Amino acid sequence: MRRRAPTTRIYPKVLAVTAAVAVTSACSFKGGAPNVLPIPVVGQAHWKIEPIDMRVYPSTRFVRGPEQGVLEVRIELFDEMGDSVKAVGRIHIELYATRRRDRPSLDRRLYAWEASLLTLEKQLRYYDPITRTYMFPLSLDSLSVARDATMLRVTFVLPDGRRLEAQRSLPDIHTPPPPPPPADNSK
User: What is the full per-residue pLDDT of the chain (187 aa) written as tens digits?
Assistant: First the structure.
C-alpha cells in the first residue's frame, strides 16, 4: 500500500511561487504617474474624432402614428475613417415634394424642422446606440404627403460653423398587406 504525499507541504510552495510571479509581473499601483513621454507631433496635428460626412439612413420612413403621421428620420455621422460617430451641433431637416422619384428635383418645401444636439439630455433623447444613428420622430399633419414623391434634405451644423449635408428620396408609405385567407379546415 502506497502512502500519499502530504498536501500541506505543496500548498505553501505553490502560493509563494504565485505571489512572486504576481509581484514581479507588469502590475502597477493605482494613482502613480505613468512613465510615458509625450509623443512629438511633427508636421501634423493630432487626429480628432469628429464628423466629416453624413447620410440619411436607409430606414428613414413614414409611419402611421396613433393620431397623426410621423416621419422617422435617421441620420448617421461619419469620421474620416468611415466609422459612425456622435457629434454636437444643430440639425435642420426639410421635406420637399418632387416631380419624379427616379430623377428627384426639389419643387416645393412641405415641412421644416430644427433640432439641437448641444446638450447631454438631447444626445440621450435622439441617439440610438443599436443603429448608431440619431432618430428624429417628426410629426406630420397628414400622411397624404407620403403618397407622392418626396425628398428629404438634412443639414448638420457643427459648433465651428462647418456644415454637413445629405439628401435622400423617400419611399412612399406602404399600406399593410391584406391578411392571408382563412385556412380551409373542412378536409
Answer: 566 555 556 666 666 666 665 655 555 555 555 566 566 666 667 778 899 999 999 999 998 877 788 999 999 999 999 999 999 999 999 999 887 655 556 678 899 999 999 999 999 999 999 999 999 999 998 888 888 888 999 999 999 999 999 999 887 765 444 566 676 666 5
Q: Which residues, in sequence order, are CB contacts of 17 under 8 Å at separation 6+?
A: none
Residue type at 38?
P
Give 102's DSSP letter.
Answer: S
Burial of 13 (0-12, 13-18, 19+ CB in 10 A): exposed
Q: What is the DSSP letter of 175?
A: P
Length of the chain, please?
Answer: 187
pTM value is: 0.66
